[in-house]
Specification:
The protein is of the alpha+beta class and 514 residues long. It folds into 4 domains: 164 residues, GAF domain (Beta-Lactamase, 2-Layer Sandwich); 108 residues, 2-Layer Sandwich (Beta-Lactamase); 63 residues, Signal transduction histidine kinase, dimerisation/phosphotransfer (DHp) domain (Helix Hairpins); 146 residues, Histidine kinase-like ATPase, C-terminal domain (Heat Shock Protein 90, 2-Layer Sandwich). 45% of the residues lie in helices and 23% in strands. The protein has a 6-stranded antiparallel beta sheet. It has a 5-stranded mixed beta sheet with strand order 12-14-15-17-16, with helices on one face. It has a 4-stranded antiparallel beta sheet with strand order 2-1-4-3. Strand 5 and strand 6 form a beta hairpin. The protein is elongated.
Amino acid sequence: MLPDYRVRQREYLLEISRALTEELDLNTLLGRILQISIEMLSGHAGFIALTEENRGWHLAVSKGIPPALLDYLESWLSNLPEDLAEDSNYIPEINKMLSDISMGMITGVGLPLLVQNKPLGQIFVFRNYRGVFTANDHSILNNFANQAAIAVRNARLYNQVRDQNARITALLASVADGILILSPDLRIQSVNKAFARLLNSGADSLVGEKYEDVVQWKDEPLGLKIKDLTQSGWQDFEPGEMFLEGDLIRKGRLEPIPVAITYAPLFSDTGQLLNVIASVRDITRYREAEEMKTGFISTISHELRTPLSLIKGYASTLRREDVKWDAKMVQESLKVIEDEADHLAAMVDDLLDATKLQSGDVVLKKTQVDIPALVEAQVRRFAPQAGMVRFKVEMSEPFPLIVADEERINQLFTNLIANALKYSEEGDIVIRGQNLGDEITVCVSDQGKGFDPMDIPFVFDRFYRSDRAAKSTKGTGLGLYLCKSIVLAHGGRIWIDEDYKEGARVCFALPVGC
């Protein structure tokens, strides 16, 4: 039969083994280690100090030590050397410090937590009665300390991996692009919500699926397919070459969406493929921008060619030496040249203004603006061009002065009235203003063909022109874009009145004050 204390020690060691193999949360583990240490050595108090690269020595857990002493202990520990060893001379100093504070003789023992001769921390156990710790006590604590040190290291590694995984998960969730993490056999191991939204699917349902079953294309994509990359072992291509673009088929009845996929293989130190990271970006806006740029170049080329051709044609005609032109013919020709030159200048100004407004470089020169007077001046300006169209101005009284940039507000009305006149052959163009107290609203309506409901969401976009407008009238698609930019720069809002059915009505609201 083993003596009772031997049985007790064996039971504690079994308990230690279970505790250290089952528990991976560091704080909980340290608490169990300290509790078992105190019980094994019949102590009444103790603490565990840990050392970390960025914190040095610090108090991790304690038991039975007065709260008033803990701050003092923390300060004292911060001055300990990092290479605190097993035969440390600091134990007597701690004993003396605790004896002085506790007004009683306390004996203590401490052993370091070492892994591969690298200190992770130190266990201190104290008794409140006079008596020394025996060699057996030291032996028990030493065996325990070795196991505890390994457990602390494992718990730290576990916590580091857990925290790192949490950071990676948070990072993937915050990325706007779709991210897929693929195994070496190209099965999906992880996917973020952004990709699930692109595909119109649940993220959890995609895990474990084959990549080629999830990422499918409407038409043949452009670039390197993932099967080409895997067949080459990923080694024959530079990172910038691992790129694919096409229309991704989505779940449900949604239309395919244009995406660009970039692949990034991850290898171990031995060259073994660990994962493939696929970054999926929605390039709808890039496609739209490219189409807009192409359309803009085509439109501007056409719009510039017409006035330039007229200017050159009339100038060449007037320069002919074999013909004598009468004064009326010369004046008419010069009038055409002047009008077309003004047309060109207006287009250039619109392009410059669009660029400035988009980049935010325009500085508003605000002053008090009389809207009714400004509108009347615009009506007089456009009256010679009106033909069978009649202008009506309806302003509520009293109509307040507003604080705005008069030049820009004048440009706003110029574009709105010119736009209404361009699409009206007859009928009325009504400019109606209302005073709503803190803001004013103005609507410009005509009795032309009106807006196609399908075009309304896009009419304020830069360079946008409907197919019908592009075939029937000149223009660059900048007029309403400039109107919107000017209104927004003044803190207002602009919209199309969709309930108006007699033609087109564009309304805007501006604050009265600054």
